[in-house]
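Dear all,

This email documents one entry for the complex benchmark we are building for the journal club exercise. For each entry we list the sequence lines for every component of the assembly. Then comes the predicted three-dimensional structure of the complex as a token string, followed by one or two observations. Please use this as the template for your own entries, and keep the labels exactly as they appear.
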Amino acid sequence: MLRAQDGVLHVLLWQRAREPHRNRWSLPGGRLRDDEDVETSIRRQLAEKVDVHKLSHVEQLSVFSEPARVPGRRTVATAFLGLVPADVDPEIPDDTAWHPLDGLPDTAFDHERITRAARDRLRAKLSYTNIGFALAPAEFTISELRRIYSAALGYEVAATNLQRVLTRRGALLPTGRTLPAGPAGGRPPALFRFTQPDLEITDPFAVLRPPAERT
Amino acid sequence: MLRAQDGVLHVLLWQRAREPHRNRWSLPGGRLRDDEDVETSIRRQLAEKVDVHKLSHVEQLSVFSEPARVPGRRTVATAFLGLVPADVDPEIPDDTAWHPLDGLPDTAFDHERITRAARDRLRAKLSYTNIGFALAPAEFTISELRRIYSAALGYEVAATNLQRVLTRRGALLPTGRTLPAGPAGGRPPALFRFTQPDLEITDPFAVLRPPAERT
């Protein structure tokens, strides 16, 4: 589960109380039950750590199946990418904490590799989808959004470019509202929202779309 | 394994000789061994059906894990999308055949659903990557490429649009060679190739890239 907060991308990890890899930090998860599919399973496992209604997006990431990835019995993991908006701070248990991705603690098994894969998937999707909706609050200033994109991408993004690209792609809408002006005065910053809160490819091969979709 | 041939997208299936679902058509695959990861496993399984060197692209598709998807012992499948170029016709065993996706025979288990998911992944990637390289011959005319894209996308694509978009994205290069002119005379058609034979996102969030990559 990833969240862009205070200009930094964080991952939710819990500290293992038992062997193997006691005291190391793990991604939330657990065994698949006989009566559930992997999507049901991950939502059940996550519900033990957080209120899953706080999750703005969940998708299958990849299977991790190195024979020796976990000591003992063969364990194949289906990893998911989950996102939480920047302004949501779900209650979490005492053994669980958000860690910055560029300062991870000692992690269990291949969970650092899985975390990096999740980050890379998020970065790729920021380039060709509207997935920013899942990291941002429901309404935000361009300056807030710039900070979130910069945190997720790992480099500074210009506010004017970001606004222009997302607007051109039809992903961003002005709400018509503004924040109160700051103590120094000046123009009060405008509030924006994403056009839709579901993942879509924002820049498809537009001219190749079937004629009916070209409206 | 998918291939765009004669203007139609095909999938490679084999006919089951034994129960369960005897005589129905299956995607190639099989059990994960203790000493291999899923990527090694799928290449081993495919090698039983075709010369895997003919595959131009392989990627993880998704996990299919409905508890009742296969009768008997619980079976979770990691599905892969494999692509074969239009001009490659690998030798296949007698129990195996290419089937058009819009006229599938009686399929085993959830393999029709997996096939549709593979088709949808391919279609999505045609919109934001250079994945056409994996469906096309090494060199091709725009008219041949148009036929391949139309087959994969499921609707007619205009040759001029296709050439313009792929060229603008830097995915397509003229080879400088032409085919011999047809019997009716006229300008001999130019031969093109893809710029690179590895998957890349061809239309990333360009203005958001780190400065060093903007060359």
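Observations: The longest strand of chain A covers residues 8-15. Helices of chain A lie at 38-47, 111-128, 142-153, 159-168.
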